[in-house]
Specification:
The chain has about 100 residues and is α/β, with parallel strands linked by helices. The protein is built from four helices and five strands, in the order βαβαβαββα.
Length: about 100
């Protein structure tokens, strides 16, 4: 999963007219590492969506702006707007993530 490097890149990616899923995480988070173990097949199942990762510590302003209170969190954007947010306590299993992504219309 490609990682966001700049604020400009983040803004550009969320401005698409298709769903962009941003995984907010950190390199020390055990739940983030666990999610990484099973996220790839889910990403493949949702090829109609774009998936990117954001370091929640490196981009603290974005984390605050979009109310990321726990990691990992999956935020979905379309046309520059945040339209969905899967908080960390609900992003622990493949089924939770699949259900969340399947609800996006």
């Amino acid at each position: 999963m490609e990682r966001i490097q700049t604020l400009e890149q983040f803004q550009e990616q969320i401005s698409n007219d298709k769903f962009t899923v941003m995984k907010f995480d950190t390199n020390w988070c055990l739940d983030c590492k666990n999610l990484d173990l099973f996220i790839d097949p889910i990403v493949e199942e949702h090829s109609d969506k774009q998936f990117l990762a954001v370091d929640a510590e490196k981009f603290q302003d974005l984390s605050e702006k979009y109310e990321v209170r726990g990691i990992p969190s999956l935020l979905v954007y379309k046309n520059g707007e945040k339209i969905a947010h899967l908080h960390s306590k609900f992003a622990k299993t493949p089924n939770q993530i699949r259900e969340y992504l399947n609800e996006l219309k």
